[in-house]
């Protein structure tokens, strides 16, 4: 059963004096993982109210493992443009085509954008194939 308001469930546990600070850090990390990050304000308030300022690096250092501790509203990553496959004949159960198929087809046809794929762009026009290996 999914918890609708996890902070309402989490706060009494965090404010309970009988729980160890490491257990509180674990609870905060579970909250951060479940919400895919939190705001800087919210994290600061949690750390201050729970009184774990000395151990706050245990939470903040997860960013070095690419865990979104602080959620930021950054522009979405560039998505690769998909090919129109609506006219292709598909099987009954396989309607989805992976992105790598589009990338590989564009690579074969030399249609990859050199900005997004600098190492996969076509050879320079002066290249004659006799380069040293």
UniProtKB/TrEMBL annotation:
The keyword Protein transport applies. GO terms for biological process: protein transport; vesicle-mediated transport. It holds the Pfam family Sec1. InterPro entries: Sec1-like, Sec1-like_sf. Keywords: Protein transport, Transport. The keyword Protein transport applies. Belongs to the STXBP/unc-18/SEC1 family. PANTHER family: VESICLE PROTEIN SORTING-ASSOCIATED (PTHR11679). This is STXB3 protein. The lineage of its organism: Eukaryota, Metazoa, Chordata, Craniata, Vertebrata.
């Amino acid at each position: 059963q999914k918890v609708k308001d996890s902070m309402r469930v989490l706060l009494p546990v965090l404010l309970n004096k009988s729980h160890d600070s490491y257990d509180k850090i674990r609870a905060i990390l579970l909250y951060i993982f479940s919400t895919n990050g939190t705001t800087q304000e919210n994290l600061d308030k949690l750390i201050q109210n729970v009184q774990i300022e000395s151990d706050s690096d245990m939470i903040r250092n997860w960013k070095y493992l690419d865990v979104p501790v602080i959620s930021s509203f950054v522009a979405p990553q560039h998505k690769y443009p998909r090919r129109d496959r609506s006219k292709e004949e598909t099987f009954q159960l396989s309607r989805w085509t992976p992105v790598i198929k589009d990338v590989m087809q564009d690579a074969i046809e030399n249609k990859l954008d050199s900005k997004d794929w600098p190492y996969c762009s076509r050879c320079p026009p002066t290249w004659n194939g006799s380069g040293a290996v």
